[in-house]
Amino acid sequence: xxxxxxxxxxDIVKRNERRGFTSMxxxxxxxxxxxxxxxxxxxxxxxxxxxQPQMDDALLESYIRANIEGNNSHxxxxxxxxxxxxxxxxxxxxxxxxxxxxxxxxxxxxxxxxTNGLLIDDEWxxxxxxxxxxxxxxxxxxxxxHDAHRVDAGGNPTFARVMKGIERLYRxxxxxxxxxxxxxxxxxxxxxxxxxSTVSLQEVTKMKKQMQLKFYLRPIYxxxxxxxxxxxxxxxxxxxxxxxxxxxxxxx
Length: 252
Hints:
Oligomer: single chain
Radius of gyration: 21 Å
Distance between the termini: 58 Å
CATH topology of the domain at 19-182: TIM Barrel
Helix content: 25-40%
Strand order of the largest sheet: 1-2-3-4-5-6
Largest sheet: 6 strands, parallel
Order of helices and strands: HEHEHEHEHHEHEEEH
């Protein structure tokens, strides 16, 4: 018979005292000013009776203090995501940075934020630059590919506005990279295959290379709105191998 073991809170703290961690926070939940056709997160508001919960000042302070004090790493990393985190507002992030400085206790604090880029202006850039934010901008490639799925709340294309945001980041010397979602089941991909087509991925990588951007590719393997999905690990593996092969061919 297995003997049950009970752990006190002090035991758990002791067992984990040497461990560091990174946390991701969504200050506005799923609230977003875009309606990407492959989005899997926007409908999460239904979990809260269609109310969009947002982090208030008290919770922000509690979160930052707990994250710093409970982390034994010398470098504390905060990752701000959404929804669209910039909808929390500039004053929210000014408060966040001030609270990080208050509770840092000699530790180094780093911030990264993922945004769709629509709200970026020079004032946002100053906040990012002055506080050493790493900014990730979501853009799916050239205009024809990006605008096929990444539209605003009114169904309008967003590529031109996203590019203006990226240009502002560059002009204001803000560190940034870009994130691409690779999808299938639309006009740019072969209709009965898993994975992105050679043509579309070549266009994406060519754009990135020309702009000298750091970028990450995120496969979207469930597209409810397009009625397409990967149904087995083998399909996902084939998709990943196909994408990596094309990336090597086009980037190196």
